[in-house]
UniProtKB/TrEMBL annotation:
Residues 1-27 form the signal peptide. It holds the Pfam family Cytochrom_C. This is C-type cytochrome. It comes from the Bacteria. The lineage of its organism: Bacteria, Pseudomonadati, Pseudomonadota, Gammaproteobacteria, Oceanospirillales.
Amino acid sequence: MFKLPKAVCVASLVGALAFSVGQSAHAGEKFGFGETATPEQIAGWDIDIRPDGKGLPKGQGSVADGEAVYEQLCATCHGLFGEGEGRWPVLAGGQDTLTDDRPVKTVGSYWPYASTLFDYIRRAMPFTAPRSLTDEQTYQLTAYVLYLNEIVDEEFVLTDENLAAIEMPNQEGFFVDTRPDVKNARCMKDCADPAKLVVTGTLQGITPVGHFIEGADAPAASHEAQEELEREKEHQRKAASGHEGAAQAATEAPAPLSDAALAGQSVYNNACQACHNSGIAGSPKFGDASAWAPRIKQGMDVLMGHAINGFSGESGIMPPKGGRVDLSDQQVKDAVAYMVESSK
Ligand code: HEC
Ligand code: HEC
């Protein structure tokens, strides 16, 4: 009875040995996998910009032109003056708060180099469509965010030549720490149980406040305890707003959706839910019939027009195509069909 498994076992062991011997005999040899990256491919990835300006594309953009682009693509989340809508990040202000218990870290109060701003916007913004901006728009937006922070004036034109010379207010707040590293020996056995460690000091602005259990005097000292805490909070949030579950159910329920709506579902998930799932920035919430009823009354043509061309109504700003200018009109129409049919 045991013969067969044993034989298999030995055979596979021999196989494994043979394989590893075979490998070392081929060390240094090429196996024909993959291909050498072309300069174009490397250029596609090599987009970082250094504080001295190395890596910047040639170009320029003015504060004045940046204002229009910012209001169209960024203000719904970051606010007209960079003050941040709802809980979206604040981009301006916060000067002289870095030593407060809750410092407001913004581009102006915290960031050491203007190059990071250009790099970040080009790489990551707008949030729903990273890398969709042209270099010119990126110059314009960088100039405008600097202006919102009163680092440049309204006449300013940012170029690849003057960017490195911009001095950010907190540049001196960053320096190379020359103190020696800690000399504690690493514990290898009989170490303290991390779950029982108590944090006695925290660093202002660095220790996440989430590590402190509300109402308890000891912080969660381990990752496990932290995860437990997050789960608990999530649970409470869900229980408090039964809506979350309702919207979820609407997404999953096998409601008889039209073909257009079915096609629009993935567009919605990719491009629209960031705002509409929870009603951020004044957007009508997905699945919320009372929020949608008056809008639906306008007729599908109006709704689709507003979704494609953008719309500034009483509750907020719907950016053209939700900021995803790469979407076709048809894709946006399908997404609207999906939203409307799911919110009746
Ligand atoms: C849909 C909402 C949304 C839109 C629209 C948006 N952003 Fe953001 N932005 C975010 C979020 C979320 C973060 C934080 C991302 C993170 O930390 O991973 C962020 C972070 C940033 C930051 C870094 C802030 C910091 O201090 O860390 C900058 C700068 C920024 N955005 C600029 C822009 C610009 C310029 C635009 C317009 C082209 C834009 N954003 C559009 C949501 C948005
Ligand atoms: C950055 C946030 C944001 C994103 C992303 C977004 N929307 Fe909106 N949307 C809004 C806001 C805010 C409103 C409400 C504007 C008002 O009535 O003041 C809105 C309103 C709408 C309306 C109702 C318009 C009307 O006339 O009442 C439709 C339809 C719509 N959005 C579709 C979409 C579609 C489709 C997408 C994805 C392709 C999308 N939205 C992505 C913020 C957003």
